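Exercise 7. Predict the structure of ArgK protein from Pannonibacter phragmitetus.
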Amino acid sequence: MAGSEAIAALRAGGKLALARALTRIETGHGQAEVDAFLDAACREGSGHVLGLTGPPGAGKSTLTNSLLKALRGAGKTTGVIAVDPSSRRSGGALLGDRTRLTADPEDAGIFIRSMAARDRLGGLSDHALAAIAVMRAAREAVIVESVGIGQSEADVAIAVDTLVLCIQPGSGDSLQFMKAGVMELPDIIVVTKADMGAYAARAVADVKGALSLSDREREGWQVPVLPVSAQDGSGLEALHEAIEAHRVFLEAGGLAARRFAQRQEAWVADYLKTRYGQAGSHLLDPAALIGVAGGPFAAMRLADRRLVVKVVPDEAATET
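Solution. The predicted structure, encoded as tokens:
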């Protein structure tokens, strides 16, 4: 099936077609047909991808619930990718985040998928980029809730259009992020549990101070710092408005399309570095690979074909 036809069938097939597509990309990883489908999803997709990241316990799942309800209330078809910690025994998702999400199972406009973080420390699973590409093609809005970040873990930044960083008061997170340089990544910063009063106000002040040190402004967008409380609902409307404002900002002048092209190059660069190390990552140009292969996922397979090294046993070493 041609790329455009496959994506049209995905959109028309509802939850069942989307579930089958996501299962297929996990079981058929690396197959040429699957890569072609994923690259078609990249070309045809236009859904806005929102990422929620931050330390464990910062309230990401609670915010996901709120945003999911707001998006459905606006009539947008929505997908959620909840990246959970992995079981050491099976490698599967522990489903800790998904159990905190509440949605009407009869609502065809909502689709929630849990994915295991596995051996990736950056808050995303091995197949999350592929799943995001598919969701982006099938839904008008996509929420990606990462497993939680530390000082150097920010994979989610190369996967989404709008990145929301969640910080909770009284945890020292803002000081840690000042050292880590994470303040260079988010488009919106949320201080959760704003009902904690003075602690929340102090966290907001600390975050604004960290932002001033990083001189964080991207192409005219000023990063807002928003206190939000899921308990009393304060700040939620302002958060929804900020996300929509950033989406509109990205669409103006084609910025969203340019950034998506840059992110695809980042996916290929990350794949090269992860698979072939720092030295191997400099052997091929991601943009050139994508141009030849026709998309980022086919580009990864093309890179494998070009960089495969056959290991020949050292006969001298085996001599006795």
